[in-house]
Amino acid sequence: MSMTEDIDQLLQLRQQALQGGGVEKVKKRHQSGRYTARERLDMLLDEGSFEEFDMFKTHRCQNFGMADQQHPGDGVVTGYGTIDGRLVYVFSQDFTVLGGSLSETFAEKICKVMDMALKNGAPLIGLNDSGGARIQEGIESLAGYSEIFQRNVMASGVIPQLSGIFGPCAGGAVYSPALTDFTVMVRGNSYMFLTGPKVVKAVTHEDVDVETLGGASVHTTRSGVAHLAADSEEQAIACLKEIFSYIPQNNMTEPPRVETADPADRDIEYLNQVLPDNPHQPYDIKQIIVNTVDDGRFSEIQPEFAANLVVGFARYGSQSVGIVANQPQHLAGVLDNDASIKGARFVRFCDAFNIPLVTLVDVPGFLPGTVQEYAGIIRNGAKMLYAYAEATVPKVTVTVRKAYGGAYCVMSSKHLRGDINYAWPSAEIAVMGAKGASEILYAKELREQPQTAQQLLAEKERDYAQSFANPYVAARRGYVDDVILPSRTRFRIIKALVMLADKQDTNPVKKHGNIPL
Ligand code: HXC
Prior knowledge:
Layout: H1 3-18, H2 23-31, H3 37-44, E1 51-53, E2 76-83, E3 86-93, H4 104-120, E4 124-128, H5 139-155, E5 161-170, H6 172-178, E6 182-193, H7 197-204, H8 210-214, H9 216-222, E7 228-230, H10 233-246, H11 285-292, E8 299-301, E9 309-316, E10 319-326, H12 337-352, E11 357-363, H13 370-374, H14 377-390, E12 395-404, H15 405-410, E13 420-423, E14 428-430, H16 434-441, H17 443-448, H18 453-468, H19 472-477, E15 482-483, H20 489-499
Parallel strand pairs: 3-4, 4-5, 5-6, 6-7, 10-11, 11-12, 12-13, 12-14, 13-15
Antiparallel strand pairs: 1-2, 2-3, 8-9, 9-10
Helix pairs in contact: 4-5, 5-6, 12-14, 16-18
The chain binds hexanoyl-coenzyme A.
């Protein structure tokens, strides 16, 4: 063959690979309101930055007539590119090729980029759109998934791993995302389940549609499996990029700084009036967050799951931070099972990737009762304790109102190696609320004087609140470093983060801890 013929052949093969499962399948995909694997990569990566690997790779399966069903690339597009100039490794599953199902060679392609991402210290973003293990291959496909899972785990805490879910993802196609750090779904157009409705029907006789089984709302409100739900694929890709902007390349580097014109010493008078006069009245903690962070930009994670705890990324003085805050507007901001699991996982992510933690506290305690106890609030609350206690990143805490009981200990208290612990003058830091404490301490008197019980209780509550429901008991012991003006919160947090920029702290050498899972 002449050189020209060689080149023509290459271009032809490339063209074939670019077609995925063929024109008809692509058309069907578009009709379902979805993009192709390549179109998604185009949206994700900087223009012209994508370099593809293994475009000509094909499967080796001979069963079920598969020898005749060859598609160059075998249903997954892999390679690397950049986002805002930063290196990222990617794979994007192509549903038009055998439902994006995973073959042995499909898995090899993904493993190759995972290995490179780990070796070269760059994040991995997987765009998933797959019916799971390729049924025609059987065990080879299961082996392929296991190889991916093993790499997900080895990469965990070393390079950030992000997942986008597009289309119906089943089986192994959901376990790999579950092992990654953040998962974004598309409302009405993406699903995650271990087995599809047909298998569910066959095994449990349950009739269920894909949306009810594993739609975005299920996983972002009930199961907590996914972190964000977007209204479109474009928006889902934008969410992945937004998360990417706050996180470092790997666990040995710092998150990128984003310069801002927002003054560090900006006074925020509004915060001096933000709390309601009645301490039992709710308010929105996000008002405090958006008013204090750079340019009012807060990227919340899992906004609809356990809304009593707000977590997300923002910047203070250009420094990327993870924010954890109780939300009095939802369940009075208590810590319950879901909130503890959500908070612990987020704290551990930030700690693994050198992202300082800013904790805003207004928590009446852990949610009591059988529902919580039976669901393991002891074990789950301990996750949160564990996560904060092992975290060695800078930890800045501001108690704005309540910090009661065990929840005081948990929320990045001084005793869990909190670096800077500030309190607003409105803070109430005590073992329990004034009413509960008075009822227990004066139970005998209240029983013995039923006619005057209400009056006595009110008196004792007032006394208790005056003596203990304030920040000064903690401040006198040094558990609170300073009581600050609410209007100076932004400035004080930024100063603390600058002071802590070179913080070094370690944990004892161990194989790994035993977090109460
Ligand atoms: C091979 C598959 C496939 C699979 C889909 N296809 N899933 N081929 N292996 N796992 C093929 C279909 O045969 C079809 O081919 C094409 O992909 C599109 O699929 P449809 O069913 O037409 O699409 P849709 O109606 O949108 O339904 C999508 C789906 C459904 C919900 C994902 O296909 C489904 O339920 N698939 C099986 C899901 C499942 O149970 N997977 C678990 C595998 S076990 P044609 O040629 O007709 O276009 C597993 C174990 C991993 O993953 C272990 C982890 C621990």
